[in-house]
Design brief:
The complex is a heterodimer.
Chain A (H helix, E strand, L loop, with lengths): L1 H20 L17 H4 L7 H19 L4 H13 L19 H24 L5 H28 L1
Chain B lengths: L1 H29 L2 H7 L1 H21 L1 H29 L13 E11 L5 E6 L12 E4 L3 E8 L4 E8 L3 E6 L5 E5 L7 E8 L9 E4 L11 E11 L3 E8 L8 E7 L2 H8 L13
Antiparallel strand pairs in B: 1-2, 1-12, 2-5, 3-4, 3-12, 4-5, 6-7, 6-9, 7-8, 8-11, 9-10, 10-11
The chains are: A mainly alpha, B alpha+beta.
């Protein structure tokens, strides 16, 4: 238990560092800005108490907000994503402690895609807070989601190999 | 009572979700972009330092480019100085300085240690702070034009609200006619901003320069911002002007913080009369 918690905190520090120092500087002409830190909640074991999952998601988002000067923005996106995750269970074929690539690439990729899409939709809609240029906003959501999913899958693959 | 407890047991996750959702949305909408930036002050010290180390690599790579830019600026300033000296010789006997030797604006040189352009509310971290004389509310300019407004300072670092922030409005004018309007970033292209409220009678042309109006005492008058790329009537009474920025916000490196000697006095005087949207207060 202690070892798992230590590993989890290590992952949290790593993901926040990568997000703040590397990914925040990536920007494909303003259309896509990838986020890797939601992975922290994605790999949380399904067994964790549900109210704890919500609080953790909220806290992660709030911490990111402090760094990004966007108080409330990431907190909302993470909270909504955590809430939706409560209704997602482990894949049928394998009983999983924590979601990861070992649950099957197809299942895991779909799981990441759906939750990241929800996170990004809330985040980007809330940040622009207008329905003008809706197509541009949707394009931005789609491209950012694609980038983030790619980064999260790569990071997950690296985790498995270790 | 037991019904209430059963209800809570059954729906406690949903209730927690709704409470937290309310809290986060309230935080997001009740705080101004200025307050949001100020909250980051305590991480500024640490973050600015770590990031500075990291960014120096990028600055090293761009050194050649930066040097060429600085040289060009130096030459331009020298020429300007000579021109002014020349003019002063002729003008000296008839003019007296209005406020003794004090300069209306002084410039604090700074470098960008962190900068984003990919969000709707972008910020810039600078390597100067309180100890260098920087205070919230001061303007930031680069060699090419206006960059942003300082929102928070620590001992050695400061955070500025970038011009690329959809929440910020700036008073700017069409240089040829001196008519002013409100400048704002629509949040899409990091090279384009929008100037609105320019009355219909003003004759605009593509390629005209847009500059700061100097109304807010944050920026001096006539700091360049960009050129007009196009314009259209907005609601039949005023123009909406598409402005291409002079600054490339993705490669910002050397900037200057503008310290206005007159700003505090002017703000105190104007406070009851103007409710300026582009002069952040310290609350």
């Amino acid at each position: 238990m202690i070892r798992e918690v230590t590993r989890y905190v290590g992952l949290a520090v790593l993901l926040f560092a990568v997000q703040l120092l590397v990914l925040n500087n990536i920007n494909f002409n303003g259309y896509a800005s990838p986020y890797i830190y939601p992975m922290l909640l994605l790999v949380l074991p399904f067994g964790v108490r549900r109210w704890q999952q919500l609080l953790l998601g909220f806290a992660c988002g709030l911490l990111m907000d402090v760094f990004m000067h966007s108080l409330g923005l990431h907190a909302t996106a993470m909270l909504v994503m955590s809430f939706v995750r409560l209704f997602v269970g482990p894949s049928d074929s394998t009983r999983l402690e924590a979601p990861g690539l070992d649950g099957g690439l197809l299942w895991y990729a779909r799981y990441v895609l759906v939750l990241v899409l929800i996170h990004h939709t809330v985040l980007i809609l809330l940040a622009s807070f207008t329905l003008h240029h809706l197509w541009l906003t949707l394009l931005r959501i789609a491209l950012s989601t694609a980038c983030s999913v790619l980064f999260i899958l790569i990071a997950s693959a690296l985790r498995v190999r270790r | 009572m037991s019904t209430l407890i059963r209800f809570l047991q059954r729906f406690h996750v949903l209730l927690l979700f709704l409470v937290l959702l309310g809290l986060s949305l309230w935080l997001y909408f009740s705080t101004s972009y200025y307050q949001k930036a100020q909250l980051g002050r305590w991480v500024l010290q640490l973050y600015g330092h770590v990031h500075g180390q990291f960014m120096s690599l990028g600055q090293y790579v761009r050194m050649r480019e930066s040097n060429v830019g600085l040289r060009h600026e130096n030459i331009a300033l020298k020429n300007e100085l000579e021109r002014l000296r020349n003019r002063m010789q002729w003008a000296a006997p008839t003019t007296t300085p209005m406020r003794g030797d004090s300069l209306a604006y002084t410039y604090i040189p700074a470098r960008v240690v962190n900068n984003t352009v990919n969000r709707q509310q972008n910020h810039i971290t600078l390597n100067v702070g309180q100890r260098d004389g920087v205070a919230p509310g001061m303007g930031v300019v680069s060699d090419d034009g206006a960059v942003g407004i300082i929102a928070a300072v620590s001992a050695h670092f400061s955070v500025a609200i970038s011009l690329l922030n959809t929440d910020m409005k700036l008073s700017a004018s069409h240089r040829r006619s001196r008519v002013f309007g409100s400048l704002r970033w629509p949040g899409f292209d990091y090279r384009r901003v929008r100037l609105s409220e320019i009355p219909m009678h003003v004759r605009l042309a593509v390629g005209d320069t847009v500059v700061t109006s100097g109304h807010s005492a944050i920026f001096p008058r006539d700091v360049p911002i960009g050129t007009i790329a196009g314009y259209e009537l907005d609601g039949g009474s005023a123009y909406r002007v598409d402005v291409v920025l002079f600054d490339d916000f993705r490669s910002l490196d050397y900037v200057y913080v503008v310290r206005s000697a007159e700003a505090p006095e002017r703000r105190a005087l104007e406070l009851p009369y103007f409710n300026e949207e582009n002069s952040p207060n310290d609350d």
